[in-house]
Write a structure and sequence with these properties.
Order of helices and strands: EHEHEHEHHEHHEHHEHEH
Structural class: alpha/beta
Strand order of the largest sheet: 3-2-1-8-7-6-5-4
Number of helices: 11
Number of strands: 8
Distance between the termini: 18 Å
Strand content: 5-15%
Helix content: 40-55%
Bound molecules: 2-phosphoglycolic acid
Largest sheet: 8 strands, parallel
Shape: globular
Radius of gyration: 17 Å
Length: about 250
């Protein structure tokens, strides 16, 4: 079974409600026929999900807390996201790991919660520049996969997409070469085969993220194990993002 091509945008802390609605209106006018995923700020989820009802844009969140409710000031639960209209969540994004110091066990709790609730997760992993220079890339990826996916069943893997995002390539303009990305993706697939089985490893979508632009997407996606992209900066403008989606086809 061929894996589906998936293009997802991550707006990070950009766009108010009105800016999000303007974006959706403009993007929709470009006639992009493929389904696209947009992880928008919390405040924009509900209005954006409503505005996207009859479109091929799927709205999701950039983070969530693993608990269902409680004294967690400033946090958001999966129930809140679902009712607001989110259909997926990013988990373990490098900014969560590095800026907000989230560790693998906390990320695992979030993945378990999302899996339990049959909610789609984009599980992000990736090495820092230092780790790559020290030849630790494989070890880091294997660790993040093993710890992040602990106790996630084979069946629950149906609701997980992995995003390989080398930290040194995020927002820096330094993209991994298609060969470097392919090598990491193929290694991730080998780890998944070890943790689960060949079928799961072959069926699971693995996206590349880190300075993906309209002019480098085609080469990246032509690699055997790259099934799509998680896009930050180039997803912020409807014209560049729609061009990127078109160039991925
Ligand atoms: P970038 O971000 O495309 O701006 O490098 C990617 C991401 O953080 O998901």
């Amino acid at each position: 079974m061929a894996r589906k091509r998936i293009i997802a945008g991550n707006w990070k802390m950009h766009s108010t409600i009105s800016q999000s609605l303007d974006y959706i209106q403009t993007f929709s006018s470009f006639d992009v026929s493929d389904k696209v995923y947009l992880a928008v700020p919390y405040t924009a989820i509900h209005p954006a999900a409503n505005a996207c009802k009859d479109t091929n844009i799927v709205i999701g969140a950039q983070n969530m807390h693993p608990e269902l409710k409680g004294a967690f000031t400033g946090e958001i639960s999966i129930g809140m996201l679902k009712e607001a209209g989110a259909q997926f969540v990013l988990i373990g994004h490098s900014e969560r790991r590095h800026v907000f110091k989230e560790d693998d066990s906390f990320i695992n709790k979030k993945l378990l919660r999302a899996a339990e609730e049959n909610f789609l997760s984009f599980f992000c992993i990736g090495e820092t520049e230092q780790q790559r220079e020290n030849n630790q890339t494989k070890e880091v990826l294997k660790n993040q996969l093993t710890l992040g996916l602990a106790n996630i069943s084979s069946k629950q893997m149906n609701n997980i997409i992995v995003a390989y995002e080398p930290v040194w390539a995020i927002g820096t303009g330094k993209t991994a070469t298609p060969e470097m990305a392919q090598e990491a993706h193929s290694y991730i697939r080998a780890c998944l085969a070890e943790l689960y089985d060949d079928t799961i490893a072959q069926q699971l979508s693995i996206l590349y993220g880190g300075s993906v632009k309209p002019d480098n997407i085609a080469e990246l996606i032509s690699q055997k194990d790259i099934d799509g992209a998680l896009v930050g900066g180039a997803s912020l403008k409807p014209d560049s993002f729609s061009q990127l989606v078109k160039n991925s086809g």
